[in-house]
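In this supplementary section we document a worked example of the pipeline. Step one takes a protein sequence of length 335 as its only input; no multiple sequence alignment statistics are reported here. Step two produces a three-dimensional model, which step three serialises into structure tokens for compact storage. The input and output of this example are shown verbatim.
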Amino acid sequence: MNNHVIIIAEAGVNHNGNYDMAVEMIHQAHEAGADYVKFQTAVPELVISSIAPKAEYQKETTGNEQSQLEMCKAIHLPLSAYAPLKQECDRVGIGFMSTPFDLVSIDTLEPLGMDYYKIPSGEITNLPYLRKIASKGRKVIMSTGMCELDEIAAAIDILTTGGLRLSDITLLHCNTQYPTPFTDVNLLAMNQLASRFGTQVGYSDHTVGIEVPIAAVALGAKVIEKHFTLDRTLPGPDHKASLVPSELAQMVAAIRHIEQAIGDGNKHVTASEQPNKVVARKSIVAAVDIKQGDLLTEQNITVKRPGNGISPMLWDSVIGTRAKRDFPRDSLIEI
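The serialised model returned by step three reads:
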């Protein structure tokens, strides 16, 4: 039985372009018990045009003074930062991931030997990008926020045409609103993704709190991605919808409990409950003092705990027989 869920602590750009803060986020993700810490790699000028507007949540969290491009330039690390960040992850003992947002960033990350490429929701309709990811031959985790099923199907077709197998692809159900209203989460959509596309599925969460990703694991998610920050009051677009390290640790611990609780799907008596069968179940006992040779009837026998005697399921077989010896009240009947 292997119910291990891959937990990705999404640092994203919550380091605000500060390398030392990014290193501290690696340490905090490791201490929380996450499997991977994930960053976002981009050359902003290759990703965002000068006329691209901010999302409403970005306006709410960062104001209107900067354009989307200016905002992203201020909070992204240089491409040269990711190799040492990978080295720090290796030293600490946590997996390194980073989402590339452009073709140059893909080439920058490729030599670092990541286990997975993470495709963000916004790139799922970017054909040149998908082709380049597929050409690297690595496993892929792909978020599906803002997507219709036919768009997901088209992206999967590009990846598989490029050489990936369905077994190389994990689809993350996702809602791309920060924070996501609970009424828009639609966790059961994971089931549709799994049945429609035959891939492994998971969930990328943007709700407030930790309840929804825990529920996703109970529903079968094999990968969980969740934003975290060192401080929710820091400036930047994603901090307010992120967990602080203590909350990340709580989420990881809860998911590890759920992993164990899922089990193998087969109903059986467990080792932990076996001793309680005698305590909780019942046996046929004497309702009154019974003399040897008395006829056993519904008036002189009854059912009580403990359960180490004749099972009440054999009631009909006991009724009408003769007492083989004296049975004091409450003693276990024998036949």
